[in-house]
Design a protein that fits this description.
This protein is about 30% helix and about 30% strand. The protein has one domain: Rossmann fold. The C terminus is likely disordered. It is of the alpha/beta class. It contains three helices and seven strands; from the N terminus they run E-H-E-E-E-E-H-E-H-E.
């Protein structure tokens, strides 16, 4: 199994690129893993945004059990580590060996969630091990794409 990493600044289109590539290349295969989505709220809610984790390539789930964080206007973030440890870890536990995995958005939010973070690392290590075991002539990382805004190529 190979890994492809897509990196870039906020808002340059990483998630859009991933979804389009998956739709074009593997439209009939089940995709496992997770996506995250930030939704903007009105100021009357206190938080100006909520961030949800949900199954990859499935409809967004907007409930407290999937809310991994809240964004406040001038006070920063409120990270819900327990959601990464429960809903997030469950999404990673459901990944069958050899399947296509999407982990759309890895960053600082999950840094306070050791169970979730360790499961992410286990998936990368398993894929690295499998790649070296069965395809020793190939790199475990088949590509890395960095997106930028503006007219630069990616």
């Amino acid at each position: 199994m190979s890994a492809i990493f897509v990196t870039g600044a906020v808002g340059v289109g990483k998630s859009t690129l991933l979804k389009r590539v998956i739709d074009a290349c593997v439209p009939t295969q089940k995709i496992y893993g997770f996506c995250t989505k930030k939704l903007t709220l009105g100021s009357e809610h206190g938080a100006v945004g909520k961030i949800y984790i949900y199954p990859a390539m499935e409809p967004l789930i907007m409930d407290d059990a999937h809310c991994v964080g809240e964004v406040f206007d001038r006070q920063g973030f409120d990270i819900h580590s327990e959601v990464f440890e429960t809903a997030g870890a469950e999404l990673l536990d459901r990944i069958p060996q050899g399947s296509i995995v999407l982990m759309d958005e890895l960053g600082f939010l999950e840094s306070t969630s050791p169970k979730f973070s360790n499961k992410v690392l286990e998936i990368f290590e398993r894929r690295l091990f499998d790649s070296r075991r069965y395809k020793t002539e190939e790199s475990a990382i088949s590509g890395c794409c960095s997106l930028t805004s503006g007219n630069e190529a990616f």
